[in-house]
Amino acid sequence: MLVLAAVPDVQFHKLRRAAGSRFSVAQVSTWDDVLAGIRGRPVELAVVDPLLSGHARSQEIERLRVLFPSLPLMLYTTLTPRTAGVLLALGQRGIQHAVFANYDDHPSRLREVLGQEEARSSSRQLLDQLADALAPLPSELRWVLEEALRSPGEVQTVGQVAVRARVDRRTCERWFTRVGLPSPRHFLSAARVLYAHRLLQDPGFTIEDVAKRLGYAQTKTLQLHARAYLGLTAGEMRLSLDSSEALARVVQCFLTPHQARASAS
Length: 265
What we know:
The protein is α/β, with parallel strands linked by helices. It has 15 helices and five strands. The chain folds into two domains: about 1-120, Response regulator (Rossmann fold), CATH 3.40.50; about 120-265, Orthogonal Bundle (Arc Repressor Mutant, subunit A), CATH 1.10.10.
């Protein structure tokens, strides 16, 4: 899971140590870089300091909330009289988690808050939904698929899955058949569509932004996948489905083991 950290160096180093191997943490130093990072990288959580520019301000963070409402935001700042009013304003915007430098930013506290915010991410919700279906797979293959769900732009082909899981392609496909899942190709494509849907709920992303971020060579391929897995164009799914509806539709139609679907019908 990629965490974008718009914080000073001292806070960044504390955050990176606390994150360990569970999270990848990338630092940015300006609000323009925050926007570019969110649009161009698979960011699942942003940790931001209202003092990033040297002055206590809420405007840039409020703008992030407007442009990217599905992106969890965590505040990591210094508690001073200058930040009190800013924190109050951001709390009214629905930003609940704040950690204060040199006060409650012990590594265990930072890990706790990161974990709470991770639970709200779309990839985590999808992983939880598919946990039972993926459980019978070998651990090496399951880990690779979980990574594909977190960063679908980085794992796009069955060959990449097989190489990372250290099995050959045919073995990979046989495992999917054995547990009643569709082909690995369908699994990866459906995961990318769900990730695209999540991004398209945010007004800060265009369809072209999303296609590029997820590694589609052409936007029309995203459109074809959207129709195949959600029955809608990318523009239509932006307006017609919320995240829970899109997830339920894909899980029910494509990612639930065939045996379970048959027994339910």
